[in-house]
């Protein structure tokens, strides 16, 4: 029987320093969901296709289903649980709610985090840019129109600009 290699992990998740001993093969999604009880990050395809497991690593969207936990060593991880501001919804979350950018809710955490990443890069994206950016996340419920509208509304809310 092979002995498991245990890694000493030091990372920051949702602004909180985390120190843990994890087997070297532990995926980030398993650390989040099973060890830290951060179940907002969803597991679906396990192949980097659907976007349900999206988290931000140093501000960039990554698939936590295929990222080893130790790859977050000394880095910043943001999950959907860390998005709210002092217990209130983040403007991006508010926009998704107002524009019906969610139905079953399974893709929503990944969509919200992908939107946060987009707006950090480009605070005023056009529709083509929005569609390209969220294209890495699958949604079987909405047909994407409400999600695109939610991202547009996110732009308004985060930039404090009036709506249409």
Structural overview:
It is built from five helices and five strands, in the order ββαβββαααα. The chain has a five-stranded mixed β-sheet with strand order 2-1-5-3-4, covered by helices on one side. The N and C termini lie far apart (about 65 Å). The chain is elongated, with a radius of gyration of 16 Å. By secondary structure, it is α+β, with helices and mostly antiparallel strands. About 30% of the residues lie in helices and about 15% in strands. The chain has two domains: about 5-80, Ubiquitin-like (UB roll); about 90-160, DNA polymerase, domain 1.
Order of helices and strands: EEHEEEHHHH
**C-alpha Rg, in Å?**
16 Å
Category by helix and strand content: alpha+beta
Shape: elongated
The CATH class of the largest domain is Alpha Beta
CATH fold descriptor of the largest domain: Ubiquitin-like (UB roll)
User: How many strands appear in the DSSP assignment?
Assistant: 5
State the distance separating the first and last CA atoms. 64 Å
- The helix content, as a percent range, equals 25-40%
User: How many discrete structural domains?
Assistant: 2
Question: Which band does the percent of strand residues land in?
Answer: 15-25%
Unreliable spans are none
Give the biggest sheet: 5 strands, mixed
Spatial arrangement of strands, main beta sheet: 2-1-5-3-4
Number of helices: 5
Which second-level CATH architecture of the largest domain applies?
A: Roll
CATH superfamily of the largest domain: Beta-grasp domain
Summarize the structure.
Helices cover 32% and strands 16% of the residues.
């Amino acid at each position: 029987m092979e002995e498991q290699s245990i890694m000493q992990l030091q990372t920051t998740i949702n602004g909180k320093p985390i120190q843990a001993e994890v087997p070297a093969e532990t995926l980030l999604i398993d650390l989040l969901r099973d060890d830290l009880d951060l179940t907002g990050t969803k597991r679906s395809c396990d192949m980097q296709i659907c976007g349900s497991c999206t988290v931000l690593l140093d501000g960039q969207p990554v698939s936590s289903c295929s990222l080893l936990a130790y790859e977050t060593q000394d880095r910043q991880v943001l999950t959907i649980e860390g998005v709210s501001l002092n217990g209130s919804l983040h403007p991006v979350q508010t926009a998704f709610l107002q524009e019906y950018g969610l139905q079953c809710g399974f893709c929503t955490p990944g969509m919200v985090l992908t939107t946060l990443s987009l707006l950090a890069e480009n605070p005023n994206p056009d529709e083509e840019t929005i569609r390209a950016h969220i294209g890495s996340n699958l949604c079987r419920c909405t047909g994407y129109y409400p999600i695109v509208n939610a991202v547009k509304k996110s732009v308004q809310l985060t930039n404090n600009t009036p709506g249409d």
